Amino acid sequence: MEAPPKVRPTSVTVIAIILIVTNALGIVAGLATAGIPQVREAYEKMGVSVAVAIVWAVASNGLVIIGSIGMLKGMNWGRLLYLVLVPVSIILGWVLMGFQPFSILSVVVYILFAILLTRPQVNAYFSGEGPAASPPPTPVQE
């Protein structure tokens, strides 16, 4: 007999959707701004090639999107991918481009999401021990 589906905590759904949307926008923005001369000049001043910046933007944002889809499917690897990749990405950004004040927002959001993604009911969901979904209501026969 197949186990009933797990109930996904609302926080997981909200976080995953936010991550999918914002990281998709990050890919679009990274690709769209690559041809702007001021952006190219800014990367050159930081000693970062535009090609490396584009590859990193697409790869890191793409991996977060993949991890977020995994979270929606109850796959713990999706949560772990996000929890490991984002701090590495933030630190790598600081190393390559220097500390940027706006990155503080990324750190605050990451900490908030990390707390929400490691709460007991969320851990239970990802471990397969979460509450089962209620079966659909049976129609009333008259």
Summarize the structure.
With 142 residues, the protein is mostly helical.
Task: Report what the structure shows.
The protein is mainly alpha-helical. The protein has one domain (10-127). The protein contains 6 helices and no strands. It has helices at 10-33, 37-46, 50-72, 76-97, 103-116, 120-127. Helix 4 runs antiparallel to helix 5. The longest helix is centred in the N-terminal third of the chain and has 24 residues, at 10-33. It starts with 9 loop residues before the first helix and ends in a 15-residue tail after the last helix. The mean pLDDT is 86.
Task: Count up the domains.
Answer: 1
- E-strand count: 0
Mean pLDDT across the residues is 86
Radius of gyration: 19 Å
Oligomer: single chain
How much helicity do the residues have? Answer: over 70%
H/E series? HHHHHH
Percent of residues in beta strands = under 5%
Number of contiguous helices: 6
Low-confidence stretches: none
Largest sheet: none
Shape designation: elongated
End-to-end separation = 31 Å
Task: Report the structural category.
Answer: mainly alpha
